[in-house]
Input
Amino acid sequence: MTQDPGWPSNSLLGRLRDNTRQELLSIGTVVRYTADREVIEQDAKDTHVLLLLEGVVKVQTTDETGDTALLAIRVAGDLVGEMAALDQKPRSATVVTCGDVVAKLITSGELMGFLHRRNDVFVELIGMINDRLRWANQRRRDFLSHPAAERVARVLAELVQTYGREETAGWTLGIPLTKVELASIAGMKPRTAEKAFSDLRKAGVVVSHLRRDVLVPDLDSLRKFAGI
Output
C-alpha cells in the first residue's frame, strides 16, 4: 500500500507508504489545542515540529510595522515547524489553530533520528518543502501579472479545490478565515481586500458568507475569472 486515502495526497502523511507512516505516527507526544491558540510563535527559538492529526491551522507572519499576513493553511496530515527543526534557527512564522486541533509534538532530535533511519521520508519531506516553495513563488508571479481580484480568485480557487467541500449551493472553503486573511495570501494590504471581494461578488463567482466562510457558486467560473 503506497497511500492512505484518509490523508490528503499532498500532505506528508499522504505521501508515505503505510508502514513508514505508522512508524512516523509512533514517535512524539499527542497534544491537543483549542481554537485561536498560537502553537508556534514567530522568532521563538524552540525547534519541535507538529504533525497535524485533526483540525486546521493557519501560518502567518508579522512585519516590523505590526501588519500580519496569512501565508498558508495546513490540515491533518501536514507537518508544521520543520524549518526550525532542520536549521535550528528562530521561527520564521506563527502557527495559529482554526478550531480544535490534535497533533503529535515531535522534538527536533526525534525527527532527525527518524529521518536518519528512513531516508525515504527525507525525500518526501524535501518534496513537500519544494511544493510549498512553488506555491510561494506562484503568489509572487501572480502579484506581478494579475490585478487584485484575479489574485484573490486564484488563491481561492486553489484553496477551495484542495480543502473545500461541494454543497447544494456550490463550494465552501470551510475554514474560518477573514477576507483580509484570504487577500493577504495574495499579497495585498487590508484596504485592498474589500475592493477585491466586491469585484468577485459583482462578477458572481464568490458570495461572502457569515462565520468567516465564502461560497463559490461555480468553481469552474471562479477558475475562468482567475485565468487558470
Summary: Residues 42 and 92 are 5 Å apart (CA to CA). Residues 119-145 form the longest helix (27 residues).
